[in-house]
Structures are given as structure tokens and as C-alpha cells.
From TrEMBL:
Keywords: Nucleotidyltransferase, Phosphoprotein, Transferase. It holds the Pfam family Response_reg. The modification 4-aspartylphosphate is found at D54. Coiled coil: none annotated. It is an enzyme of class 2 (transferase). The keyword Protease does not apply. It comes from Pseudoalteromonas haloplanktis (Alteromonas haloplanktis). This is diguanylate cyclase. SUPFAM superfamilies: CheY-like (SSF52172), Nucleotide cyclase (SSF55073). It catalyses: 2 GTP = 3',3'-c-di-GMP + 2 diphosphate. Its EC number is 2.7.7.65.
Length: 311
């Protein structure tokens, strides 16, 4: 069964909200709010696929709501259909200039509403597919560095707001250059694919995120995971790769492919830039490789901003 699209209807007129809900509820999941302020609060906690937004409302009007939606990276891509009793071409043009995708005049035809909602959802579906394809690593078919950066930025902001822990893992296939030199690049590509699959398969929570970081490096973003939980998860990933038993006779630390892992954890959302977590995880990875490889080094960033390593 196809997942129903989530549509937020923002209108201060209860009759309009009721009619729009009845028009769209059979095909979509509908949410109703009566003000611009409530709409902005709602989208902070709930993802929606489309917003039908009245222009003239008490308090924040539809134009200001759209401006704030477009200024927020987490909401700027949500398509917005303006709905208004104003039929002036200037009002319509202003809506499009601010980023609205369509404009419906009141009184509205329910058939027109359905058609325009359907059209905008189809456009969003195609755009989402293109965005997904642009975010997937072509070789391993897991998320790429671009998608990793977006995911980390989003989870870091959530961690900062809620004061919840956030862990980042950086992983490197040990002596991978020697593997390529010994077995050839085709075998190296196959090795990367198998390691990527093992890492992704080990993720059980829907919020756990593994991506190809670049070359033979991978990364994981783990929301609401503290240091000890991150260590358990890292050991699970390390064991998953060891279990592949991919022969590596050129390795200097094992007879098969292994990975080294660096972990950085912020326990209370106190890291002031998401790249700090990557930098700390990279330092942990360097220590893991420098102390023998096939190892895990965790770094905790304390409230003071200082970090410490734990082998």
C-alpha cells in the first residue's frame, strides 16, 4: 500500500478547514491548524509533504509564514499552495515570487483543489527521487558524503535543541591500498560493496545512518546514542566486517579485511558545530590505526569543550 501524503491545512476559517479536509482526507493524511504561528510550530515537530496556506489570517499572515518556511533549511523544500479570497494578480505574483508553488482563489472548486494538490505531490515525488539519486553512492549504493553532511547537520541541530546525545563514527578499511595492489581494483570495488552492505545490515534502528565517507572510509550518525552505546554499536560493525572473512594476505594486521573505528560523542548537545564531531571522530580513527588497527577509539566531548579518548 502506498504511503499517504501528509498535508497541512492552515486557515483561520473553520468552514474552509472542514471543506478542505473532506475534499482531501480520503486520499491523504490531513492536519489542521488555524494560524500561521501554529503552522510554524507544527512543522518543527512533524514532517509534511504539502502545505495549503491561507494568506489573510490574524497574526502572522500567509506571506510571512512562507518567508519563514523558506528561511529554515528543514522546511524550505515543502511545496506550498496559497489559497485566498484575494484575486488580484499582484497578490498572486507576490506569492509566486516568495516561493509558492500554486495559487487557488476562494471560493474554490473541490475538483480544482484535488487536481492541484495531486499535481504538486507528483512534482514533489519526482524531485524527491532525483534528490535521492543524487545522494546515493554509485558504487556501494548507500548514502554518499553529501547525504551524510545533510543528515549530520539535521541531527546536530536536533541534539542541540533537545540536549540529547549524538554519536558519530568514522571507519576505515585497514590497509586497503595494499588490498587493491594485491588483488586489483575490481576486487577492491567488490570489497567496498560487501563492507558497505555489512555495515548497513547491522543497523537496526531506523534513525541509525551509515554512509560512504570517501574512498575506503565510511561514517555513521547515531542520534540519541551515548558513548557506551556507541562503543557497543561500533563493536557490532567491526564484528560484522570481520565475519565477512574477506581474504587479505597483504594486510599487516590480519589475514582478512578489518576496519578501524573512531567515535565522537556529545552527551548533552553541547557541541557548537557539527564538523567538530567529524573532526573528533577522525582523531579517534587516527588513534585506532596508530595503535594497531582493527580497533575502536572513542572520544567524548565534555561540557567544557575538551575531549578525551577511550580505547
Amino acid at each position: 500500500m502506498l504511503k499517504k501524503a501528509k498535508i497541512l491545512i492552515v486557515d483561520d476559517d473553520p468552514l474552509n478547514r472542514l471543506v478542505l479536509e473532506k475534499t482531501l482526507a480520503s486520499d491523504h493524511e490531513i492536519f489542521l491548524v488555524e494560524s500561521g504561528e501554529k503552522a510554524l510550530t507544527f512543522v518543527k515537530s512533524t514532517e509534511v509533504d504539502l502545505i495549503i496556506l491561507d494568506i489573510v489570517m490574524p497574526g502572522i499572515d500567509g506571506y510571512d509564514v512562507l518567508i519563514q518556511l523558506k528561511e529554515n533549511p528543514s522546511t524550505q523544500t515543502i511545496p506550498v499552495i496559497f489559497i485566498s479570497a484575494n484575486t488580484s494578480h499582484d497578490d498572486e505574483a507576490k506569492g509566486f515570487e516568495l516561493g509558492a508553488m500554486d495559487y487557488i482563489a476562494k471560493p474554490f472548486s473541490t475538483a480544482i483543489v484535488r487536481a492541484r494538490v495531486r499535481n504538486q505531490l507528483l512534482i514533489k515525488q519526482k524531485n524527491d527521487l532525483l534528490e535521492m539519486l543524487a545522494s546515493i553512492d554509485g558504487l556501494t549504493e548507500i548514502p554518499n558524503r553529501r547525504y551524510l553532511d545533510e543528515n549530520l547537520s539535521r541531527e546536530w541541530r536536533r541534539s542541540r535543541r533537545a540536549g540529547t546525545p549524538l554519536s558519530v563514527l568514522l571507519m576505515d578499511i585497514d590497509h586497503f591500498k595494499r588490498y587493491n595492489d594485491c588483488y586489483g581494483h575490481r576486487a577492491g570495488d567488490d570489497c567496498l560493496k560487501r563492507v558497505a552492505h555489512a555495515l548497513v545490515t547491522a543497523c537496526e534502528r531506523g534513525s541509525d545512518f551509515v554512509a560512504r565517507y570517501g574512498g575506503e572510509e565510511f561514517a555513521a550518525v547515531l542520534p540519541n546514542i551515548n558513548q557506551q552505546e556507541a562503543l557497543v554499536f561500533a563493536n557490532k560493525l567491526r564484528s560484522a566486517v570481520n565475519a565477512l572473512k574477506i581474504p587479505h594476505k597483504a594486510s599487516l594486521n590480519a589475514e582478512h579485511i578489518t576496519i578501524s573505528i573512531g567515535i565522537a560523542t556529545t552527551e548533552f548537545g553541547q557541541v557548537y558545530a557539527e564538523h567538530t564531531l567529524l573532526e573528533e571522530a577522525d582523531l579517534g580513527l587516527y588513534e585506532a590505526k596508530d595503535t594497531g588497527r582493527d580497533r575502536i577509539v572513542a572520544r567524548v566531548i565534555a561540557a567544557s569543550g575538551k575531549s578525551e579518548s577511550l580505547l
